[in-house]
Amino acid sequence: MVEDTSNSSNKPKGRDRPKSVYSWTVIDVQKWLRRHCSDYYQQYGNLFLQHDITGRALLRLNDNSLLRLGITDTTHREAIWREILKLRLKTDIMEIRDLQRRDAYNMSYDYYIA
Predict the structure, then answer these.
(1) Which of 14, 81, 89, 100 is the most interior residue, by most CB within 10 Å?
(2) What is d(CA 20, CA 74) in angstroms, rounded to the nearest whole number?
(3) 54: part of which helix (H) or strand (E)?
């Protein structure tokens, strides 16, 4: 009998949550950039690599930061900035949901103690 040695344990399961943007590595940011800013990835992917842009750094970028990175074309910068804003919003929503779940758990925990 041959055992399946594929990395099935590394595959995301239905209920697994995506990795937090705050814990993204430079490689994770490259994947995000390739997926969400594919029109500009070839031009600017190396800039993000050279500046070691991690997920935490990505969320802190703004229009001026992108300009200092070397993205001088206004249209390109605005498109990338728009994707970063979407990512920030998605991240904020996930954090709010986590807080709500935590509050709901704590309220039910307090109820059982009382």
Answers:
(1) 81
(2) 29
(3) none
Long-range CB contact pairs, 20-23, < 8 A, 24+: 20/55, 20/91, 20/94, 21/55, 21/56, 21/58, 21/59, 21/87, 21/91, 22/55, 22/56, 22/59, 22/91, 23/55
| Token pair for 84 | 């970063």
Give 82-110 as a DSSP string. Answer: HHHHHHHHHHHHHHHHHHHHHHHHHHHHH
Amino acid identity for residue 7 in this structure: N
Query: If 0-12 CB within 10 Å is exposed, 13-18 middle and 19+ buried, where does residue 44 land?
Result: buried
Please write the tens of the pLDDT for every residue from 48-83: 999 999 999 999 999 999 999 999 999 999 999 999
Spell out the residues 6+ positions from residue 39 whose beta carbon is closer than 8 angstroms to its own: 79
Query: Residue 15: what are its φ and ψ, rounded to 5°?
Result: -100, -5
pLDDT at 103: 78
For 52, the token pair is 């070691």
